[in-house]
């Protein structure tokens, strides 16, 4: 198991405090810069490894950054703290985005990112809970994260814990029937301590989601299963923060975050081939320059 980087964890705490004290525009700028730094780290990880899912990483990083740097009750130096919020990345193939975020928060040294997908590395192509602090459950086979998260929310309620469970799902992943069994159970049990976030970039491996299996009207489907639903721009950090921290009723919440696959890199945006295409060294230079603007 990797261990925390105390210096980076201290920086993360200062970031969180500054965010709390800042006004709206400063908050927006802080999260935008932090997300783009993680995008740059992710590009270099995938370039070194020669594999990864860069398009989905880019679309989900604003969601992950907002959660870890402004919302989640977690402690990078105490990843097993009993009353921590739980976070599950159901779309586990975007592990690179999660690793970049966890390292930036100090869950483990950022130097470990250089080992991504290498021999004996803890940073596998899909997240592993026995190797990486901050990973609550192994994911990769799609359709498993929401069912596990429902179980976590039930467990929190049974133990009278105030912890909240957040799970990020891919939209193509919602074609798996197990998600809808879990959604039905969460609605039936009125799990108000559960928030599902859909990374709605409308692309999956090889095609657009609506060409493969129509998901819309996605909001109405979740409402029919007993959920409250919010729909936001998944790259607007303040809108995400507001959705994640809004007062909750007595039902689970689904946040549909409308995103763009490959966000932040012009030649990747909304291009299906960047689901798992690997950028060249020259493309990484170009992408890094765009992200630094």
UniProtKB/TrEMBL annotation:
Its cofactor is thiamine diphosphate. The keyword Acyltransferase does not apply. Residues 35-280 form the Transketolase N-terminal domain. Keywords: Thiamine pyrophosphate. InterPro entries: THDP-binding, Transketolase_N. Belongs to the transketolase family. PANTHER family: TRANSKETOLASE N-TERMINAL SECTION-RELATED. This is Transketolase.
